[in-house]
Hints:
Layout: E1 12-17, H1 23-31, H2 35-38, E2 48-53, H3 54-61, E3 74-79, E4 90-91, E5 94-95, E6 99-105, H4 112-124, E7 128-133, H5 149-154, H6 158-177, E8 182-184, E9 195-199, H7 208-222, H8 224-227, E10 236-245, E11 249-258, E12 260-262, E13 266-269, E14 276-279, E15 282-285, E16 299-301, E17 303-305, E18 308-313, E19 325-328, H9 334-348, E20 357-361, H10 364-376, E21 381-386, H11 391-397, E22 407-411, H12 417-425, E23 429-433, H13 436-451
Parallel strand pairs: 1-3, 1-6, 6-7, 7-9, 8-9, 20-21, 20-22, 22-23
Antiparallel strand pairs: 2-3, 4-5, 10-11, 10-19, 11-18, 12-17, 13-14, 13-19, 15-16, 15-18
Helix pairs in contact: 3-7, 11-12
The chain binds guanosine-5'-triphosphate and magnesium ion (MG).
The site of magnesium ion has 4 residues, from helix 1.
Amino acid sequence: xxxxxxxxxxxxxxxxxxxxxxxxxxxxxxxxxxxxxxxxxxxxxxxxxxxxxxxxxxxxxxxxxxxxxxxxxxxxxxxxxxxxxxxxxxxxxxxxxxxxxxxxxxxxxxxxxxxxxxxxxxxxxxxxxxxxxxxxxxxxxxxxxxxxxxxxxxxxxxxxxxxxxxxxxxxxxxxxxxxxxxxxxxxxxxxxxxxxxxxxxxxxxxxxxxxxxxxxxxxxxxxxxxxxxxxxxxxxxxxxxxxxxxxxxxxxxxxxxxxxxxxxxxxxxxxxxxxxxxxxxxxxxxxxxxxxxxxxxxxxxxxxxxxxxxxxxxxxxxxxxxxxxxxxxxxxxxxxxxxxxxxxxxxxxxxxxxxxxxxxxxxxxxxxxxxxxxxxxxxxxxxxxxxxxxxxxxxxxxxxxxxxxxxxxxxxxxxxxxxxxxxxxxxxxxxxxxxxxxxxxxxxxxxxxxxx
Length: 452
Ligand code: GTP
Ligand code: MG
């Protein structure tokens, strides 16, 4: 067919915010799932992706999103762990997301990861809206299941309304402190110069029609040019996670942000050593509205167009790194694509020295964020790698000359059981945390203690 939705790319929407402010619940409400409930301690550990088709968006949004007004195919939502810096995801040096939803719990207002998220959005110039979540917890709230916010407001007592407004003004004040002018979204005329604040509840669905309406409107109005790319060209993506799948070995969960990928395509992927050149054996697509992290039933497909979350099965993916680029070679020269991937990796590379600590992190981006934090704290790095703590890391750490450097700092990684044994045998100390600044602080305290 030649309809426009065939040529426009799906916008990528990142959902960011502090731990427990309701990012996954908000997506659960939109896609009709219960991913948050299945998570250990309701904490998201990895970045996920969900394709929500236009049909679902307009069903949820009712009269606020009429499908005939839009020629975007839908939205690709990226769920992120609140404890984790979102700088872990990029595309060609820029931000992976076209637009973002900053989720803020109205009871908690701004928290460290809220500010971290805003810093990242500011730095990458990503337009965003604020979802002021958990409005149902306002004392005296009279819930209006799934209704637009205006209707929900009308059903509230004067007292409940002013209680909520007070909290919303607090968020608007915090945004202003960070250099953004913002207002209730229905008062915003120009969403490029003003941040729209949308009161929502992921529990009752109130305000979600508004949130989707604003997102679709913004994408259609301001980003149509960016969406009108050549989606038929060779695909580009970013690795979310490297996962073992029964029958396939190591596979990649990827966000394809540009172009098309086919089964059988030659691809180049950023690896722990050299770029990996391999051939796509199978493309496994989650069903619409399914979170790629938790999906069990993938459809085997011949091709996928951007933007999409896709699992790629191919030989030799064991050394692929989360956060690394994936490129379809297409009719280009393979060496040229390898150089492109190398150049992009070099951009993220961490500087190491002759003497220093060993750092392990779950993705390239978090490794980079760790390296920046350590540099600020004037802690030298001997080796920095993506992956779980392995015996060889202990061996490397034990070669440090200074006792204060005989450590491994692990960010959001596991410790392999044989590495535990090595740690016991050597004088290497392991620090683990899933919040970067806490990890660095713990280490600094240890060094201070040592020097006392
Ligand atoms: P991380 O992934 O750990 O960063 O958390 P998150 O932001 O994804 O939060 P999540 O969706 O897991 O929600 C955290 C808790 O808040 C859960 O217990 C949810 O049930 C609850 N919650 C989320 N949204 C709402 C809401 O709108 N109203 C109420 N009452 N509770 C909510
Ligand atoms: Mg979550």
